[in-house]
Each structure stands twice: as structure tokens, then as C-alpha cells.
Known about the structure:
CATH topology of the largest domain: Rossmann fold
Number of strands: 16
Shape: elongated
Number of domains: 2
Amino acid sequence: MLFQRFLDDRSGSVLPLLGLAAIPVFGLIGASVDYSRAAAVQTAMQAAVDSTSLAMAKGAASQSAAQLQTAAQTYFNAVFTRTDAAPPTVTVNYTTDSGSHVVVTATSSVQTMFMGIMGFNQLPVAAQSTSTWGNKRLRVALVLDNTGSMSSGSPTSKIAALKTATHNLLGQLKAAAMVNGDVYVSIIPFSKDVNVGSSNYTADWIDWSDWDQQNGSCNKNYSHYSSCINNSGTWTPAAHSTWNGCVTDRDQNYDTMNSPPGSGALFPAEQFSGCSASLMTQSYDWDALNAKVDAMVATGNTNQAIGLAWGWQSLTQSAPLNAPAKDTTTYQYQDIVILLTDGMNTQDRWYSNSSSIDNRQRILCDNVKNGGVTIYSIQVNTSNDPTSSVLQYCAGTRAGVADASKFYLLTTPDQIVTTFNQIGVGISKLRISN
């Protein structure tokens, strides 16, 4: 029958089916695009409300609700620059219940490009951040590679990128401080040695034993201590005031500890020709900290461990650097070391091979983390070196346990700037409760 033949005929039926099947497929692809756009907007919005809540906390106590609202909207608008979202609505609320809090909330929406065919013309986005203060404080040590290889890099040298990144980071940390003392920062440039400042030549924590033998003069025609003494000469050490400020690793095992100076635990002076810029102890003098960054120069070989050791010393409330005392009855403290280097370990007082130096550094890192310090480690690898296992090991908060989220492997100098910015946002949030 004609009707039966029509029912049995399957020719030409595939194309309509494909057309019908394509609708949900294209819908799903379009939805993923729209959701990705919304997620990017939400990420930018979260960063903006975090920044706004920190900024508003500084003046919240002295402003009316209307003034605070106006200030929050103005500040948010300045830092949130996405044009693919509807103008966000920002609200701010300041309370003093159980401490001081500023809560900033932002809401907006993203116009969909594909989901409209399914009836969804907009996707809502929102973010919230709570800034609390009065009981959280940061102590940060910036341990920065100033070795000769930091002068290389293209189009910007690594040392130039490091200076830019550090200036930006100091700005972030300054913004995270509500009052003086909320955030302290020390700067520890290092190469093979660390420069503790030549003005310390009268300090009782300096060991002059080796320096006196390596720097001086003989009453006979000999330029070295041993030759002078072995030939019945008289060796006269140079004046300690001529010391350039560099110290090398302490005696083992003090080289892996933050013990205060004492018998056997002094810091050996060395007239190292590649002496870096002098360190700066914990401070919130932001102008002086920035000036110290400007003074950094690239020279000398790499000894990460001595930089880390002095970074730890700068956080320690005893000689030689005497970090500011902590009021632990009123405040909670987070101690942080940010260690950046562009090379593998090549030299210290005891060894000249990387593996031996790295082994000492692992012991040091365990001791630092056992001392309650969090380590962020950054390897700027522009020379196709192996990924540093010791820097990976050191990253984190627990001895013997590496935290991959706190290790950064960079391949270009400009990544130093973005990485420092990322770390700065993260540690500033230690003063933010989300």
C-alpha cells in the first residue's frame, strides 16, 4: 500500500536528526563559553573587593556610613576595570562586634552570548570580602638573590625585574597595614655571603679569626699570613674598620640554626669581593625599604642557604638582628620568608658542589619551618637548569613536607613581577577573612 511504503521509507531522515541533535551540542558549547566569561569576571571582582575591603578598613572608624559607602564604590570602580559586566553594585558594612570588620559585597551580571537561545540572557556574578584587624600581624623577610647572573635577562635584566617586583610588593604590604607595626619587612640581599653592614665592625658577634689572617701585612716581604709566620715574620691584621661588612656561614651546625651568638656561634667576617648590598632589618619605614631595594646590585656566586639563614635571623628576637618584640597576648603573628634565586647553589664556606650545599640547606629549611616560619621559594630558571629539588623541598610550613603551592618556577624575568604580585595578594589576605 502507498501509505505503508511511506512509513517504511528511511531515505533522507539522517539530516533532520543531525540538525535536531546539533541544537543541544551547540548549546552546551555556548554555555561553556558564557560560563568561562562569567568566571573570569568573578575572579576579577573578587580581587577588587579584597583590595577594597583592605582600603576601607584604614578609615572605617572615622567615617559615616554614607561616606564609607561612597569611598568603597569609588575605590572599587578604580580597580575593577572589566567592561564585559554590568556596572557592579557595591555595598559596604562596618561593624565592631567581636573585633573590627569591614564587609564589602559586589554584585553584577554578564550578558550571555549563546545561552540566550535557551532563555538565559544573563549570568549573575558576586563576590564578598571581610577585612578584620586588630589581632593579625605579618613579619616578612625578603631573601633576594643578588648574584652576578641576576644582571642577565632580556628584554629586562633579572635584577631590574626583581627591583620592580619588590617595590610593588612593598606597596601591597604597606596597604595591608592598618597601623604602624601591623606589617614589618626585612630585606636580605645575598650572594655567596651576606653583608651585615660594615658599621658593625665593633659588634661582639663577629668572629675575626679568619679575617685577621687573610687581611693584613707582614714586616717581611710576604703577602700571606702562613708565609709570614713560617719565615719568622710578624703579621699585623688590618684595621677592622676596613672590613666591607660581609660574613660567611657559621660553624656547623650553627649554620643551620638561628641560635644567638656565643661561644662557637659567632658570625665569621670575610672580605668577599662580591659583597652584596647590606641587609635591612625588620622595619615599616617604607621609604627606607624601597631605597634599600634600589641599592641592590648583581655580583658574586650563589649560596641560598646563607641568605635564608639571615632571613630567619631577621625574624628572630635576639642578637644579632633583634627583631621587634611580639605582643602575643593581643595579636596573632605570621612569619614569612620569600626566597628568590636564579641559580643553583655553587659555593659556601664549607663546600663547592651543589649537592653538599643543598643537603645543608634542607636541614636549615626544616629548622626554619619548625620555628613557625612559612617559606615561599622562587626559582628564576632562564638558563635551562634542572628544577631545583631543594627549593621545592623548602617551600611550605611543615618540616620535611614540600608545599607545591608555595614553589614557583619562572622562565622569564618579567614573571618575577607577576609572581611577587600573586604572593603579595596571598599574604595580604592573611589579614583578610573571606
